[in-house]
Every structure is written in structure tokens, then in C-alpha cells.
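worker-3 :: picked Bifunctional UDP-N-acetylglucosamine 2-epimerase/N-acetylmannosamine kinase
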Amino acid sequence: MQHHQSRMERMESPRRLPRWEWEQPQSPRGPHELYFKNLSKQKQKQVMEKNGNNRKLRVCVATCNRADYSKLAPIMFGIKAEPQFFELDVVVLGSHLIDDYGNTYRMIEQDDFDIHTRLHTIVRGEDEASMVESVGLALVKLPDVLNRLKPDIMIVHGDRFDALALATSAALMNIRILHIEGGEVSGTIDDSIRHAITKLAHYHVCCTRNAEQHLISMCEDHDRILLAGCPSYDKLLSSKKKDYMSIIRMWLGEGVKPKDYIVALQHPVTTDIKHSIKMFELTLDALISFNKMTLVLFPNIDAGSKEMVRVMRKKGVEHHPNFRAVKHVPFDQFIQLVAHAGCVIGNSSCGVREVGAFGTPVINLGTRQIGRETGENVLHVRDADTQDKILQALHLQFGKQYPCSKIYGDGNAVPRILKFLKSIDLQEPLQKKFCFPPVKENISQDIDHILETQSALAVDLGGTNLRVAIVSMKGEIVKKDTQLNPRTYQERIEVILKMCIEAASEAVNLNCRILGVGISTGGRVNPREGVVLHSTKLIQEWSSVDLRTPISDALHLPVWVDNDGNCAALAERKFGHGKGIENFVTLITGTGIGGGIIHQNELIHGSSFCAAELGHIMVALDGPECLCGSHGCLEAYASGIALQREAKKLHDEDSLLVGGMSVKKEEVVTAVHLIQAAKLGNPKAEHIIRTAGQALGLGVVNIMHTINPSLVILSGILASHYIDVVKEVIQQRALFSAQTVDVVVSDLVDPALLGAASMVLDYTTRRIY
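worker-3 :: C-alpha cells ->
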């Protein structure tokens, strides 16, 4: 058995899960139906009409070896069982047709499948050059077969070199490709081949949520990815209760009991053949010393397999009383053998994937599966200089029973895959689309695209309010909705999704084409992942929150997330004073103090995404306490919270109110009252405002001396009250060379919303042009 992978539907979750917990469906509308929640009966009917009501989907399944057939066979049975929807053509190539590897094409015939074509594509030699020549031979032979079959879609599995030839041929001949088990990570050249097939494939079926996220990270279209689970699990999870004693006796002899034998399956590592052969030799030595009956399967056809067979013969494995060496075991029987083994040892993917379904102990050797997700039944031996380490692992693992793992499937993959196949619209363009990350601005333009009404959904998560707006390419706020920001995570996510869905519907009526969603939020943000790492104290339950996934899944739109200070800087760059300026700083003066830095036209995030925390620049060694826990921060002097604190002190001393002012008994004293008192001539209020402005000025001077921008933009509700004092401090304290830097007040009314929108508008137009 070798590598396989599949995938189960994307589920909506507000937080990124470390591992998918598989559940059996409770009803026909169980968890596995979520992928199709937006594929209404009407849409399915439309797809059928487009494809032709009586038009069956012609599916070509190509299998190269015993391992991929174990994954493809359940799908083939499912396709064959629905002849009203599908026509199945089976192509067999690779090691299936080689006697030394068991002539495993016979098991396909025994399963009552008609083999349309047999292609001898293996160039013998079992070295690197023969693998390349085999790919070339397959590429020469496949075009004629595909021209005759003319399939609508080809199903390709996994990461073998034969599969790469299949995918290359189909892609160049404009045949749609469904790739099974893309997105997984193992640890050898297989990774490169698997990912190359992913880029050629039009549709993807994967096993785990991690694999799904890898595909998304590789810029694959979300709508063409199905998280289904591994097809082989459909058979695995229903097989253990079958008669197994006769199978054990057949392959291991009379007198061998369940849990008292070992199954060994080890393949060469093509990127380090010498080391893998050495480890195989040590494995056999350890197994001989361990003195338990062992079923050894011959390695696959990769480069280095010939040398591994020589090692087996050198050790006398084929004639040793404790060993049974076989070229192939039918999958149904192999399942029973590993399910009741005392231990499975080697470097085959079946050890870390299928065997986990039975809780059988596994010893995974070397680096061939180093990147795979594994259950607790797997013990890794990454390297071994002697047999002792492997022998110790055998003593630790043999005979144990671990909890059964469903990391790779829940037994319902095939129904999901068949439904996915039925949903494929053959009238859709064949050309793949990729979801690329942001790139540097491209000035080329497409007039048809510019003439469209491009817009963005902008979300601003403030300490008090939650706002969602439709923003046009010109920065006009077409529609805006405001609600109180809920205090709990769950309520907040629900409100955001509801507001975004309503805004997206309204955009249709307003003739606005929504390109994506931009989110501005307080706290430290990882914009690459769309995750809020740490929140400010103003927003509760807002740390380690994945914002991108639930919103993207709900709206089927790309989503960008960044800190509100960074968004303000982006707004100035696209719509405000920063337009056309290469280096500038935006400083926000509101409830808190924040900002963003644009350097050489790019936003600076810093190594841990906490650049431009300008509110926490120290302007005094021993000053007021800041919300961050430190003292003397700029925010502790000049923020709205700081002014409110000083206003309350004056009010408590009966020193705040002057003629023309009044504060009701139940009214909360705020910074607004302090500013009003200063305007009416209250000397103490004037002093506090001036001190705050001086502190802000010192912060600006520090920014000038550190970054040397050509422009500083003061934004927020307090900016106009500070600007004159800030300029005075610059003239008094800044170096002469920095005194010429312009300091201006922002003209933008909603910088957070505009900045959130600019992330969408800048990125999408760059990508499409």
C-alpha cells in the first residue's frame, strides 16, 4: 500500500481547527452536505440542462499501481453503480502490468471492471533515469488513448510519477482533471509531484482540513475543492468484523494468532536512496532479532527498489522461517492483515493513513512520510545508525491497541465525490483560475474592466460600533450600516456575517460588483492568514480569531484583514493626502492612539505584525499608566481615554465646568467635556489639552527621527485639536533636517472603512489587469 489522499467538504467554522473531527452523518442533510448547501436543486437542474439532459458524464479512471487502485476502486464501483449518470473507461498502466510486482491488473479484472486500454509504460532499471524514461514513454502513448476515449473528465490519484504523466497529457489535451488526495505533505519527491499535479488539475478531492488549507494556500479556487475524506476509508471502516483468521493463515501460516505478527512495508526514498537502503537493512536485522512472524511486502517500483530486493535476498528473508515475502496482497485481505497485526513497520503511507482506522501500532521509519498528519498509534523513528533504535521501537509498540483514528475519513467519501462529479458544469470555461496573493501594482489597464462598477465590502470593528459599508472604486461610501459591537465572540461573528450578507444582497440592487471583503479591526493582526492574534482591551473575546475563513466560506469572496491603524494608512495612500507619496506615516488620535507606516509605497507590518504601534512610543520615563501596563506611553497622554481620565479628575474636584456648561447627574464625563471647557477658557482644561498635544508632538518627533517620512498625517477626532501644538513642538525639538516635514490633518471621514476597502480594491484590480 502506498500514498493516497482525498477530501471532505469544507465546513464552516469561526475558528481554525487543528484537526477535523469526523462525524457519521445523522441524516441525509448531515455534515457532508455542507459543501452543497449553495447548490440548490434548481442549480443542479441547470447544470444537467447545460450538459444535456441525456448526456452522461464520461469519466476516465487511470490506475498505475496497487496502491492507487485501493483508493480509486471505491469511486469506480460508485460510478459503475450509476450508469444513468456516468460512463466509465478504465486505463491501466505502470507497475500493474509487471510480473515482478504481481501483475496486479488481474485484481481489476476480478472486480469485474472492463479494462479499455493497457499501456506498458515502465522502463525497467529501477533507478532515477528509468523513472524519467517511464514518464516520457507514458507521454508518448497516452495521447492516442485519450483521443480515442474523449473523456469529459479524468480522475488521477496521488503523487506517483505515472500520475504526473497522466495529468500532463490530459491538461495539454484540454481534458478536465479531478485530482484525488492533493494538498497533503509527506516528505520526498512525492510532494513535488503531488503539487505539480495539483496545478494541472481543475478539481480537487482531499482528505483533511489541513490538506484543504494547503490547496487554498496554493491559490486553488475554493469552489473547486471538495473535502470528502479518503475513499479507501469507505471500505476500511466496514471491514474489521469480517472473517480474518483464514486470511491470516493463508499469508502467515497455521498457528499464527491475531496481534502476534508484524506487517512490514518499506519503499526506497528517491531523494536519498543510499540512506533508505541502509535503513531497510537495519529494519530487517531488527525484525530478525525481534523473532516474530513477519509478512514483508516487496517495495514499489521507485528508483532504489532493485537494491532493496537484493538486501532482502542477502538477508535470506524469502527462506527465513519467521518471514513471508510477497509481491502483492489484495486490498480486502491486506485490510484484515493490518487490522489484526501486532504492529506495522515501514515507511508506506498506509501506515500513517489507513492503519490508524484500526488503532494498530505503527512504526514509521525515516523521512518518507515526515509531513503526514498521524494519529497517536504512530511512533516515528526519523533516523537510525544501528538496529537498536528500531528494535526498541518494536518492543514499545508491538501488541498495543490504540484508539481508532478518523483523521483521513469517516466512511462517506464516495457519495460526496459522486455528487461533486454530478455538479460539474461542462459549459464552464476550461481555463483554470487561481486566487493569487497581493502583488506589486501593475499599471496596465483593461477598459472593459474599468467600466464596470467595482466595489468592496468594508467592515470596521471598533470598540463600540460595528460598521459595514459598500465602498466604490473612487472611495465613495455607497451604503453604510452601523450596529453595536456585541461583547462575545459568537454573537460578534453572527452579526458580522448577517450584516455582510445583507450588504452583498443590497449591492446587487445598487448595481455594485463586490470584489471582496476588507476588515479593519483593533489589535495585532496577521494579515497573511486573516487572523486576529491579540485584541485590545476595548474588544473582548477577540484573540486568536480566524476572520477570513468563516466570512469567505459564507460569501464565497476573498477576504483581507488588517489592523485599524494600518487600514487608516492604506486609506490615505489610496484616497487621501498620502496619494502619490512614497514614504509617510498616519497617526490616529481617537479612543486610543494607533497608526500605520507606508515605506516605499508598501505598508510595514514588522516581523511579528506589531509595527506602527505608535501609541506605545515612550514620551516620559515616569508618566501616567497606559492600558498596555507600561507608563509614559503616548496613548496614556493624548488618547480619548487619557483625556476622559483627566476630565473626570477635574470634575471630581469641581474644576471642570465653567459658564455655559452643564453635566447631568447620570451623564458620563468624557473627553468632549474637557475640550468644551478648554474652548470656554478653563485654564486647567487648556493645560491638559496642551500637555496632550506636546506629548503627541514628541511622539511625532521620534517618528521623524526614526523613519524620516516626507509626510505625517494626523487622523481621528482629536487631530484638529492637536495640530498647532504638534507643529510647535516639531520646531522646538526636531532636528533641523526634519523640520521641513509636512504635518497635516486628514480629510477622510471614515479612514478605517476606506482602508478596509482599499485592501480589496487594490488587490483585485492588480490581479485582474
